[in-house]
Amino acid sequence: MANRFPHIVMIDDDEDDQYFFREHFKSCDDHLCFEGFIGGEAFFDFFDNQELEEDQLPNLILLDLNIPKDDGIDILMRLKNNATLKLIPVLVLTTSSSPLDIEDCYNLGVHSYFVKPMSLQETKELVSVIYEYWFNQNIISRLKTG
Question: Helix, strand, coil shares of the chain as percentages rounded to 5?
């Protein structure tokens, strides 16, 4: 597989959250590609209308569960039922700490579940942990990003 820079997609209706996560991830790696989508339909419309090669797919998908007009659990099911997208690790980043949401997400194959931090400093720390694990420690991610 060709070497490439880390590629993250965030599906979240909150543009401020997308901005803060993008900026914090960029501070970890200024070559990182970060794409934000306001809801699941925007994401699926984009990816369903592209003829993407495997090395053009994201390495990681960040998913909010609480998206108006979309249900995060439904988006997760669509991701995991899509032959092209199902192997991409999905991390839930949401305000919900509901045990039912957590259980549903893990049953559907989510790789990690995080409650969104309340401060910018906590967000920065969480992003650093996610970046370090998924792009420096995790063997599969290292293979995909070179």
Answer: 50, 20, 35
Which residue ranges form the domains of the chain, and what is each CATH number? Answer: 7-145 (3.40.50.2300)
Q: Residue 117 gets which letter from DSSP? A: P
Closest CA to 72 of 82, 64, 80: 64
Q: Is 12 exposed, middle or buried (0-12, 13-18, 19+ CB in 10 A)?
A: buried
Q: What are phi and psi of 115, to 5 degrees?
A: -85, 130
DSSP-assigned letter for residue 55: G
pTM of the model: 0.91
For the segment 76-110, what is each residue's pLDDT rounded down to a tens digit?
999 999 988 999 999 999 999 999 999 999 999 99
